[in-house]
Design a protein that fits this description.
- The chain is mainly α and 171 residues long.
- It has eight helices and no strands.
- α1 (2-13) runs parallel beside α3.
């Protein structure tokens, strides 16, 4: 589960060292709250057919809560970081895959945090809508809507890029 926790933490924190700190704090909190974990029922009494999937959702939720708590404590720092432009790193022409990933990262950065979070949990980490909703402490319908809106926004952003490139090639 550690690689998935680290990946989600890196997505949230956008900094490897901060992400490692988030994962460490989440694990410490989970170990402290181990007595509250019921493998049959999952976190907070939520019934789930798969205890392992439920444990993943519980750990993701703890990680997310640690992140949100940290962000609340560092409100001023967060606002300053959000205003900083993303580094513009142009990959060599031969590395088109890296360029596509860079485009995707920029498009993801333009999504609201709730939509980015939903898309990463469901799309990248493979959590079900129900598990992701549990992690974010929102209704399942809200999670489904966030994922749908995020996917539509990404399709517009990333989908428009090649079309614009084609138009500029034609002129």
């Amino acid at each position: 589960m550690l690689p998935d926790l680290r990946a989600f933490a890196r997505f949230l924190a956008r900094d490897t060292a901060a992400a490692d700190d988030l994962v460490q704090e989440a694990i410490v909190r989970a170990l402290r709250a181990e007595a509250q974990w019921d493998p049959e029922r999952g976190p907070e009494g939520a019934a789930g057919p798969d205890p392992e999937a439920s444990l993943r959702a519980w750990m993701f939720r703890i990680l997310r809560n640690v992140f949100l708590e940290t962000m609340r404590r560092r409100g001023t720092e967060r606002r300053a970081m959000e205003q900083m432009p993303l580094p513009d790193t142009a990959p060599p022409a031969a590395q088109e895959a890296r360029h596509a990933v860079s485009d995707l990262a920029r498009a993801l950065a333009h999504l609201p945090l709730a939509q980015r979070e939903a898309l990463i949990l469901v799309g990248a980490h493979g959590l079900s809508h129900e598990e992701a909703a549990q992690v974010c402490n929102v209704p399942v319908g809200t999670m489904k809507a966030r994922v749908a809106r995020a996917r539509a926004a990404l399709a517009r952003q990333v989908g428009d890029m090649p079309a614009e490139a084609e138009r500029s090639d034609m002129s």
